[in-house]
Structure formats: structure tokens, C-alpha cells
Amino acid sequence: MDMNxxxxxxxxxxxxxxxxxxGAEAADYVCSLIPDGESVGSGxxxxxASLHILExxxxxxxxxxxxxxxxxxxxxxxxxxxxxxxxxxxxxxxxTEGGELVNIDGAANRVSALCFGVKxxxxxxxxxxxxxxxxxxxxxxxxIAAPLNAKRLNKKTPCAVTGxxxxxxxxxxxxxxxxxxxHPTKYQTEVHVVIAGENLGY
Length: 202
Fold this sequence. Notes:
This protein is an alpha/beta fold and 202 residues long. 37% of the residues lie in helices and 22% in strands.
């Protein structure tokens, strides 16, 4: 894996790339990007949770909208506020060496914020999520990330048991929307892709 080439490909696509050897260094950088007083939205990223980024932002006085921090009855409201925040922090289910980002969602709160609504976005991506091709990235999202997330969320889906996607039609399916981000949209003003040279999240 040629990291310099990956960073170059991201820049060519219009993203603002950065690479750090550790997740801790990446987390410090992400927190430094967000000016005082600006709000932050986030989905249910295990990468971000493992790095304690949201807690750090709350402690530094930022208003943070994260549905994982509220009861289920309040999540709809938080989804809306997160999608209108000044910044949105996320990971990706997979990324190609060519610089494309792949995300699969159940409620689509995350992919909708990433596609439209939030002007400044930061992806934090562990090196384990980088795949050589778009086909391999889609496979990773369906057969590695989604089954692990379904199991974590106690979903009644075949993949939560088998660990592999069966393209199910289960009511508990968390693979309802797939988004491939090839470039930032015209609406977005900053889209950072911060890569850490260690395994992070699913």
C-alpha cells in the first residue's frame, strides 16, 4: 500500500487528506480543526468512539449532536440536528486506494449528512478500511463492517449470525442505503480525510 499515492489521489479528488501513524495523533488533529463555538454532528462511528473525540469536544465547549448519547425516543431530533451542524465527524465502512469513500446505512442519517446538509466534514479512517478497488471496498462494507455492526446492535439479521452478507430483506436490515463519495459536493467547503496508520473500528 503506497500511502503517498493514496494521499495524492484524495487531493486530486478534492478532499483534504492527512496521515498520522497513530489514532491518538489523528484524534488530536481532528480536534484542532474545529474552531471554538462551532457545533458538531456525528453518527454511530466505533472509530470515533474508540478515540474519545466527541467527549473531548464536549469538554472544550462544543455543542455535539450524537444519537448514541441520547435515549432512542430522542434520536430522531438528534439525527436532524446532527445533519445541520457546522461539522460532521464520521468514519467510513471502506475507502479505496483511489480515494473513494463507501458507506452503508440503515437509517441513512449518516449518509444524508455526508451527501448534503453539512458543509465541513471529517472522515477518520483506520488503515484496515483501505481496499485496493471499489469492488473490494463494497465487499468490505457488506461482508466485514455491516455484519459486525449488526451483531453489535443486536439486529435480527442473517449476517449477525453468519458474519457474511446474504442480501437479506430482514426488517432489521442495516444495509438500506449505500453511498459512494467520489468527490466533495459543490455545497461542501471542507472535506477532510484523516487516515491513521493503525486498525480502527469495523
